[in-house]
Amino acid sequence: MADAQAEMFKYFEPTVQWNNLQLSNIHTLASWGIGTAAGVLGLTGWNGFIFFLLNWVFLSTLVFFVKCQGKPAVFFKSSAMDIAVTPIMNTMLSYVLVWTLMHALVYIYD
Predict the structure, then answer these.
(1) 16 lies in which domain range?
(2) For the purposes of burial, counting CB atoms within 10 Å of the CB of 110, is it exposed (0-12), middle (13-18) or buried (19 or more)?
(3) Whole-angstrom Cα distance, residue 103 to residue 83?
(4) Does residue 20 lie within any of the structural domains?
(5) Where are the transmembrane segments (predicted)?
(6) How far, in Å, are 21, 27, 29, 59 from residue 55 at the CA level?
(7) Higher-scoring residue by pLDDT: 34, 1
(8) Tell me: the pLDDT tens digits for 3-19?
């Protein structure tokens, strides 16, 4: 019983929500920047997705070691899952939107 109660009060929910909001902002802004870079560089097809995945790994590593000081369990409930895995689909959708927009602006509408 004591372990369940300790686990329940391990995290202060407003702080966890604030951390998730900040992480979401980092992912969104990074996806816009990475999408802009991919569009301007003229990446198409799988090259663009590989570019995204490489940058995603780099960004997740930075957040893990710089922002969380290597201890994401202190800041997030599911630790590394919240940083790298959970937001990848939403971030990829933003990336594809900006990537195609920038590619169209630079290469199609010359």
Answers:
(1) 12-108
(2) exposed
(3) 28
(4) yes
(5) 46-66, 87-109
(6) 20, 11, 13, 6
(7) 34
(8) 655 565 567 788 888 88
Angle at 92 between CA 21 and CA 31, to 5 degrees: 60
| pLDDT value at residue 33 | 96
Q: What was the pLDDT predicted at 41?
A: 95
**Residue 9 DSSP label:** T
Residue 7 within any structural domain of the chain: no
Mean pLDDT within 27-51: 94
Whether 32 is covered by a domain: the verdict is yes
pLDDT at 102 over 70: yes
Residue 5 lies in a domain: no
> What does the angle CA 42 – CA 89 – CA 7 come to, to the nearest 5 degrees?
145
- Closest C-alpha to 52, from 98, 86, 20: 98
Cα-to-chain-centroid distance, residue 42: 22
Q: Provide the mean pLDDT of the chain.
A: 85
- Which of 39, 47, 34 is CA-nearest to residue 102? 39
Structural domains in the chain (count): 1
Give the integer Cα–Cα distance in Å for 35 and 86.
Answer: 19
